Amino acid sequence: MLKNKDLDENTEMRIKSVCRKALEWIMPSEEERARTLEFTRLLLESLKRELSKDNVNAEVQIEGSIAKDTWLAGEKDIDIFVLLPQEYGRDYFQKVLEAAKRVSEGNYLEAYAEHPYIEAYIDGFTVNFVPCFMVKNPAEAKSSVDRTPFHTQYVKNRLNEPLKNEIRLLKAFMHGIGVYGAEIKVGGFSGYLCELLVLYYGSFIRVLEAASRWRRGEVIDIEEHYKSPEEARRAFRNEPLIVVDPVDRNRNVASAVRINRLSEFILASRLFLKNPDIKFFKPQVIEPYSSEKLLKVMNERGSTLIFVKTGAIRAVPDILWGQLFKSQRAILNLLRQFDFDIIRSDVWSDEKETNVFVFEVSSRLLPPIKRHVGPPIDKISNCEDFLKKHLESKWILSGPRIEEDRLIIERRRRYIDVVELLRDKLAQGGGRKIGVASLVAKAFSENLEILANEEILPFYLSNNNFARFLTEYLIGRPKWLI
Amino acid sequence: MLKNKDLDENTEMRIKSVCRKALEWIMPSEEERARTLEFTRLLLESLKRELSKDNVNAEVQIEGSIAKDTWLAGEKDIDIFVLLPQEYGRDYFQKVLEAAKRVSEGNYLEAYAEHPYIEAYIDGFTVNFVPCFMVKNPAEAKSSVDRTPFHTQYVKNRLNEPLKNEIRLLKAFMHGIGVYGAEIKVGGFSGYLCELLVLYYGSFIRVLEAASRWRRGEVIDIEEHYKSPEEARRAFRNEPLIVVDPVDRNRNVASAVRINRLSEFILASRLFLKNPDIKFFKPQVIEPYSSEKLLKVMNERGSTLIFVKTGAIRAVPDILWGQLFKSQRAILNLLRQFDFDIIRSDVWSDEKETNVFVFEVSSRLLPPIKRHVGPPIDKISNCEDFLKKHLESKWILSGPRIEEDRLIIERRRRYIDVVELLRDKLAQGGGRKIGVASLVAKAFSENLEILANEEILPFYLSNNNFARFLTEYLIGRPKWLI
């Protein structure tokens, strides 16, 4: 670790000690390293063999953290890319997938992100077999996987042994605080992004020091593809963090990073530098509340927790979480539109059987009366329409009258009970109309439970993972702040 | 009435017929006119006599609608101005007041607006004796009363018999829809303003037609004191209606007109022209709801009506209402600050014994939980303070955590009951601290009742005037819209 002037000596000592402790369990042992590399080599060979049987002339390469020797102890993800000549058509992808399936001996899923790929489970490893095109430079990439080999090459060319551990520390820190991973569920920092940050700033601690001072729209442009941060910001408008891909100026490596995760990383960086602690790397495990405690905590809040629970949605995690988040936003809009005051919301999924949306509202019931602001007096025909509509309406409670320069009425609400509103709008395929994503709307029409407060108890007691989620929700504090 | 192209013949006929009916009861009879003028003449003479006894050498003049012969039948207000030479000091005002008191034979109030004056009650008339300075031109006026004689002169010079009735129609219309009067309680159109509007537009109906199309910031500059409406708007910034005083370019005759009253006049003008009806001149009398009906209507709304009731406040009406409105705004701010959702508010006063503020809120109680949005993550020291304050706070229910780029917590509310909040903040002289006006705060500290919903019933049943007010509040619709 590099010496730093910002930190006093005592804090620096403590940081070093915490990092040393962390490294002890995040550095793969010699044994793990040897086993992993040997396993990878064997895989590579058997895949090459299968490909040559089919006369597929391709380059087979290891990518990801195994290729760069930056993986964390216990990580079991192996990425194997098959680079096909560009002359080959897309039909060759299928040949690669077939070869991969044979190597996987039946234990695999056929998945699809931008590209088809095979996710296989072999000897405790998760192996991704990814066909892609071999392009001359990253600008020719037809999809992001074509760019991956360039990323690997870029990082490998600049790495040295000490840097590898700095990268491991950053990844482990991000993992510990819950911001690691570019998948939709997390919306955090990819491994490649961690590697670039360490290469750019020089060490784990320097990344944290820099991040402590990051502002929204921070630009990191390692290869100086842009003349100025402003120019880069114009190219990547509104992205909270901009890390220009060294191998492709048109890509933001941090485009998956959501503002929440970025802010959490910034705050955690500050707090760690001030008060280094192993908990940032190894968060404590939260034990779910007992049912008595759960009810007591809910009762103290005095809000209403609404659980919208549905059954299985068959989709890969990125699709599933994309649909869940989109549906969550749609339902939040619905609740706001009907004046329910939202305290918070969250989504839980086991990615298999059950999905639960949580909507916490101030109150399950609203008063029957609703103040409704009409047009300003100088919109003559709007005023006429408003008067015509409301003067005889059976929904009216008071008015119309004038306040300031507007027509106002008080009328009866259409929905006073949030549960009734949700049931009416989500059941029987109605979800689509209010913007719920297709697969979720389908799930709702097959299986929809709307539970309020303690009605969640049976499921809470039956599912420990959900119980932990709900307990953490109620604590509502990142573990590194506990 | 002048012929008009905008209206179809049928509507024009109906307007004429309604106006004819209205004039029948708003034009003073020959007998009333003779009696009023004779009474005024006698008053004038006896005041002159008293002044000469004291060697006060002053011009005594009738002002107001009696002077201009524009008063409405049954109006019993006589304005007598005593114009003192400018050489005289302010002590001469006292001599005028003393003379007026002698004329009033004991039945008077000594009042003070900008100026001291005597309000006397003689033979069923309300007579204002107002001392002022005789200035050469209105720009030299030391207070608005010095300008009044010029207003009277300006209007008298331009009046003719038909115009007098047009003015009477406009005044009666404005009175009927509740926008007549420049006093604070009303915030509407003064008699002088009505006269100017008729002089400018030519007739009652033409005023209504013009008003139907008025926009916020409308400029009427009869003597073309300003080069353009824009110039006038720059001089009278943000005033909703600008009628440049013909005798003083620096005065807006409509400065007392509040946006509510202006909007009501505009809308009523449009509706009258479309569907002329005597109800605009003679609004129906609303009978108070029975107590059963009152409770039923309140219950249907489902809101909470909070009545803040206090005792006598000794002040002339303009001061009283100024203080009441200021206090109402302060209390509304308090309620908003503590997150109570306000449906509507109003103030009632008998101007003697009792004052009642009405605050209608969605719900008397709020849930214990409150979402509290903290600083954005890039305000480093604010974040530190926020964490320090809340990490150990006993008020915390959840958090701190991050949402988007901000720290968020959920905490217990300090007040969940609006009645408790108001009692705490208004009792024992606390009102001043939250911005309640001085006399009202004093009244609260002597006598404060905070009543919710049906708790108002005893007072409602004991005071017919208040009962009518509350009934009209609940209907919440101008009488010309009923």
Question: Which key features would you list for this structure?
Answer:
17 helices, 4-stranded antiparallel beta sheet, about 45% helix, alpha+beta, 5-stranded mixed beta sheet, homodimer
Description of the structure:
Two copies of one chain form a homodimer. Chain A is of the alpha+beta class and 482 residues long. Helix content of chain A is 45%, strand content 21%. Chain A contains 17 helices and 15 strands. In chain A, the strands form four sheets. The first copy, chain A, has a five-stranded mixed sheet with strand order 1-2-5-4-3, sandwiched between helices. The first copy, chain A, has a four-stranded antiparallel sheet with strand order 10-11-9-15, sandwiched between helices. Chain A has a three-stranded mixed sheet with strand order 6-7-8, with helices on one face. Chain A is globular. The two termini of chain A are 28 Å apart. The model of chain A has no long low-confidence stretch (mean pLDDT 94). Chains A and B meet through helix 10, helix 13, strand 13 and strand 14 of A and helix 10, helix 13, strand 13 and strand 14 of B.
Topology:
2 copies of one chain form a homodimer.
Chain A: H1 9-26, H2 30-53, E1 59-63, H3 64-68, E2 77-85, H4 91-104, E3 108-112, E4 116-122, E5 125-134, H5 144-158, H6 161-177, H7 191-201, H8 204-212, E6 218-220, H9 229-235, E7 241-245, E8 248-252, H10 259-274, H11 291-301, E9 304-310, H12 317-337, E10 342-349, E11 355-361, E12 369-376, H13 380-391, E13 396-403, E14 406-412, H14 418-426, H15 438-446, E15 448-452, H16 457-462, H17 464-475
